[in-house]
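User: I'm putting together notes for a lab meeting next week and I want to include a structural view of one of the chains we've been expressing. I don't have a solved structure, so I'd like a prediction I can at least talk through. The sequence is below, exactly as it appears in our construct file.
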Amino acid sequence: MSTNPRRVGAGRAERSIRADTLSGAGRPGHVEDSNDPGKPGRVAEPRGVGKPSGVEPLVESLVVAVRRSGASGGGIYLVDETSRLLGLKIGCGLPRDIAVSWRQVPVTASVPVSDAFREDRVVWVGSQEEMARSYPQTAAALPYRYALAAAPLSGRSGSRGVLFLIWPASHSGRASPRERANFASLGRRVARVLEDAGRTFVPPDEPHMIPADGASENFVLSAHAPADLLERLPEGFLALDLEGRITFLTSRAASLLGRHVSRLLGTRPWQSLPWMDQVLVEDHYRTAVMSREPVGFTVLRPPDTWLDIDLHPDSSGISVRVSPRRSEPRDRPGTASPAAPEASVGRLYQLVHLAAALTDVVGVQDVVDLIAAQILPAFGADGMVLSAADAGRLKIMGHHGYDPETIERLDGLPVDTGLTPAGEALLRGIPLFFSDPDELARDYPAAPRISGKQAWAFLPLIVDARPVGCCILTYARPHAFTADDRAVLTSLGGLVAQALDRARLYDAKLDLAHTLQQALLPRSLPTFSGLEVAARYLPAGHGMDVGGDFYDLIRLDHTTAAAVIGDVQGHNMAAAALMGQVRTAVHATAGARPDEVLARTNRVLADLEPDLLVSCLYAHIDLAHGQMCLASAGHVPPLLHRPGERPGVLEIEPGPLLGIGVDLPYPITTVPMPPGTTLALYTDGLVEVPGTDLDRMTSGLAQLLPGRSRLDRLVDKLIHHSWPHGLPTDDIAVLLLKSGEA
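Assistant: Thanks for the context. Below is the predicted structure for the 742-residue chain, given as structure tokens.
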């Protein structure tokens, strides 16, 4: 006989008290029990929003993963290939405010779920200390004791996202190879569910949150006996859900807290009790939720009543015991007393999280994406305009929630005028907040109102007393900005200013570097009868400096050619300049024996006395005689496939790197090149992928050479095989050659 876990079990009584569903934080529930205000009360937990279409199998797979792994919670991230963001779609056993802070994570971010996705491997973080060592920004934003595993959703079509699971502080912190394999298997199981769902699955826009037991959030209330038992005890008792809302309390608890039962049910204690509205109290709650460990502290209820508060969490919520204390605490940790109003701990951690994320952004578009993905949801905004000060005008660098026509009309507004709030905020260096259109019209009657927005926050972006730009957050409905909102947004404006200033400098240098890189690479390759050619250069996913990878194909006559590929040590202007000199030296000696070409190029480098070394592979291709001669200066060996043979690595005896010394030998390797032969020259960025075996990677690439694919498609397949999600950690150059009938 099956039982409903919400109907039976310790402490779950069956008193016929029914409470209206709560629709939001801080709303007291209506209890239909008795008119006696001394009776204990309990309120139903808030029902979740309706499930998006097709989401049920994914919810079930997450609940199964949590149960099988013994985790206390988890979630599923899915990747948006267009924006390169991982979006949290389903969460289990997590407080909503924590989940919202991590609703979108860039694929490139240094966080466990991003690493699991990029590197297609299970990431295990067994303790808070390990999190601080490996992922300091995540540890700063979530400074709690817990263990975490992240597994890629690897399926037939590649990775679709990440499954993550968390365990309380009581976990040993170790994961055996068998457990890690189990995590990977759970990730593949979720991937199969996604593949089976196909187009019927519509991901929710906001994280869909479910309890850790996967049950419906509607439950039946309990019998008289347990509640009566609690009423007889001298302490007070409360129950909180994972969002911190009071779902049950005894009359003694209400008396100790100084409020009527009906005014406390459905509220968060630090919101309904002013003397609990302090950072330390909320932080204790968050610590209990994340670590699943008991937490105790003492708080002062004015004017002179000290209360001991003990929190006992599990996967369904927190049981709270409230005890009166006869004397002022002296040695109990976590003592809290009323202080001046301060930002909630959730907002403080949110600010730390956003500050850490802003330090990771690289270009201007990264700043725009971060604001749209993380800052807007955190503050309930739905629109954003990011402008940079340029020649006395505000040039729009990015936006969200606006149509192109509106942006075109707003772009280029002058800075040096007090007629617009953006210009005024930037000139005075003071943020401006408008809760509704009437307030904006009253203060700035001449300001253009063309967007239909109903509330605005104008944040000036100032760096070293220098105006950088303005960030405008907008709301589709009137919005009252609390003192908490204004304080955090003002601080956030300074962080965005620093990030935007760095990003603009980065973009300028990146543009210069890539312009130089493209100028040094060949604009086109010569064509030959009987030789198909394709080449690619792909810069590293991140990095402001120009790389030293190069390739070339030199026509010697109508049946012979020289193919060359190389890699200059470093990623800077010096590497790019040396790359240009090496290419020139190779061109000057091309046509000689391959060993002589490398030796003469080496002597040129010795005369230049560079501080950098160069790897290089030179191939002399003779189409008329169907053979090629190769020499290597410490370069990675090429891949080769000849018709009727197995593809593989062409073993070449390497010589020393260019720049080490003069008069050094460079052995020649001569191999036949019958029609249909495919030769792949590449730099080490193609095969040196973190977390993979080099030999296995080169072997896998060689298996792609056979076939009738056009070379331009084949080169894309090679790069995708090594870096299926893009964003290589090093520059990549690839040169493919395939002989045909002359």
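A couple of points you could mention at the meeting. Residues 1-40, 42-50, 215-222, 337-343 have pLDDT under 50 and may be disordered. The longest strand covers residues 158-167.

User: Perfect, that's what I needed.
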